């Protein structure tokens, strides 16, 4: 039986084993997926030990996504663009690092929420690792505009410099939260504000009529950001779909089979 795992610290909360077990059962794949707690100062050793035990691949979560970049002997274009790795493939050529987070977010927006990104005005709140990981996949869908807003404008401007050529003339821009101009069809919260029950300091006018508001965090009840968005007419989406879809993308990388995600997402939602 082929073995896979997810490395993190902490890791007990991870839903990945449940998601991948469901995908394996659905697609008839003979594989086992487990949680692995890696020591904060021993991530590389933990990965090498898993490979020595016959591991075929792994997911990587907090706080090891940057360290996984250094460990990988080759990076995909999207992992290089994200500056972080959440999926490792162990091949005869060595350790390949990929990042499926952005693909997962985009799949959730386009396929599950049924909202096309093409031609839309997209506002991305935050410019840290979570935001950086989704810029390339968003731009691949050709939005009319992508504005990256952040408390520290220079960080957002750094992302714009990195990705401007991919978006086309004037498509990608940066600003501070107080300087967001206009209304947006899709508003994505990639800040960590929801962890401390805070809302990024943005005006209600950022939500165009019928806008989609997505928070990368998820829980049993809507985050304060989503509650704020709901009061201003937005349709809501949390980060659970992104989690399920990034897992499907990793599963496809490892097994060459694309699993269906709707039932798995529905089941996880019922358990929150």
Automatic annotation (TrEMBL):
It catalyses: shikimate + NADP(+) = 3-dehydroshikimate + NADPH + H(+). GO terms for molecular function: NADP binding; shikimate 3-dehydrogenase (NADP+) activity. Residues 117-194 form the Quinate/shikimate 5-dehydrogenase/glutamyl-tRNA reductase domain. GO terms for cellular component: cytosol. InterPro entries: Aminoacid_DH-like_N_sf (IPR046346), NAD(P)-bd_dom_sf (IPR036291), SDH_C (IPR041121), Shikimate_DH (IPR011342), Shikimate_DH-bd_N (IPR013708), Shikimate_DH_fam (IPR022893), Shikm_DH/Glu-tRNA_Rdtase (IPR006151). Its EC number is 1.1.1.25. Shikimate binds at residues 14-16, 61, 86, 101, 218, 246. It holds the Pfam family Shikimate_dh_N. It comes from the Bacteria. Keywords: Amino-acid biosynthesis, Aromatic amino acid biosynthesis, NADP, Oxidoreductase. SUPFAM superfamilies: Aminoacid dehydrogenase-like, N-terminal domain (SSF53223), NAD(P)-binding Rossmann-fold domains (SSF51735). Involved in the biosynthesis of the chorismate, which leads to the biosynthesis of aromatic amino acids. Catalyzes the reversible NADPH linked reduction of 3-dehydroshikimate (DHSA) to yield shikimate (SA). Homodimer. Belongs to the shikimate dehydrogenase family. This is Shikimate dehydrogenase (NADP(+)).
